[in-house]
Amino acid sequence: MDVKLDLASYVRVLKLASTPSWDEFSKIAQIAGAGILLVGLLGFTIFAIMTFINPVPV
């Protein structure tokens, strides 16, 4: 484990990294939000189907 080599590679990656533009950030946020909504809708659909098939007694 060479600490100097590791630090040099980390510094090189940080120098290449840049802040995304507003357009890029908003597209990423929209795609992530759509994915979260899709997973939530899928989970709710499975829950509704399972409740319909095997209702829980009250």
Number of strands: 0
Order of helices and strands: HH
Helix content: over 70%
- What's the shape? elongated
- Stretches where pLDDT is under 50 for at least 5 consecutive residues are none
Terminal CA distance reads: 61 Å
Domain count: 1
Radius of gyration (Å): 23 Å
Beta content comes to under 5%
Q: Major β-sheet, in short?
A: none
Number of helices, where a helix is a run of at least 4 consecutive DSSP H or I residues: 2
Mean pLDDT: 91
Question: Which key terms come to mind for this protein?
Answer:
58 residues; elongated; 2 helices; mainly alpha
Outline the structure in words.
The protein has 58 residues and is an all-alpha fold. It has one domain. It is 79% helix and 0% strand. The protein is built from two helices and no strands.
